[in-house]
Amino acid sequence: ASILVLNGPNLNMLGVREPEVYGRQTLQDIVEGLARSAETRGHRLEAFQSNAEHELIERIHRAYHEQVDFILVNPAAYTHTSIALRDAFQATRIPFIEVHLSNIHAREPFRHHSYLSDIAKGVICGLGASGYGLALEAAFQFLEQGR
Ligand code: DQA
């Protein structure tokens, strides 16, 4: 199957950005690990990062036309602001898991609400970079067993 990993604003700064909150792995490190696991499991994985809301939305639309089967998304700050990103997921109906490196519920109140969580298959937060790997395992299960 075909899996897309989407990362939102400032995640291109991982490794440098507040390592005490987000860890020391770069986005490239994380994506390379995911791509290896997907390949081993016989799936295709592509990754896209953008700091621009419209580019993330357009990537979701493109994923629909490419018949992408599943998305792992860390929407970063757009989690807490973007009705447009929510609408893109609802429009395309591509199943997705929401991932956050940090535990958004243990942070500032403005990070507690997500515009995506209630329409996600599931949400993983607070487990650092390994959260992406765990989400990918869950995606494999969904794609291979249909739930
Ligand atoms: C984040 C949490 C968001 O609140 C924040 O704006 C981010 C990263 C995380 O992965 O912990 O940019 O999504």
Describe the structure.
It holds the Pfam family DHquinase_II. The active site is at 22 (proton acceptor), 100 (proton donor). Belongs to the type-II 3-dehydroquinase family. This is 3-dehydroquinate dehydratase. The protein has 147 residues and is α/β, with parallel strands linked by helices. It has a single domain (2-145), classed as Dehydroquinase, class II (Rossmann fold, 3-Layer(aba) Sandwich). It is 39% helix and 18% strand. Strands 2-1-3-4-5 form a 5-stranded parallel beta sheet, sandwiched between helices. Strand 3 (70-74), helix 4 and strand 4 (96-100) form a beta-alpha-beta unit. Helix 3 runs parallel beside helix 4. The mean pLDDT is 97. The site of 1,3,4-trihydroxy-5-OXO-cyclohexanecarboxylic acid (DQA) has 10 residues, from loops.
Span from first to last CA?
A: 14 Å
Largest sheet: 5 strands, parallel
What value does the average pLDDT take? 97
Strand percentage lies at: 15-25%
Radius of gyration: 14 Å
Tally of discrete structural domains: 1
**CATH architecture verdict:** 3-Layer(aba) Sandwich
Pathway: Metabolic intermediate biosynthesis; chorismate biosynthesis; chorismate from D-erythrose 4-phosphate and phosphoenolpyruvate: step 3/7
Catalytic activity: 3-dehydroquinate = 3-dehydroshikimate + H2O
Active site: 22 (proton acceptor), 100 (proton donor)
Binding site for substrate: 74, 80, 87, 101-102, 111
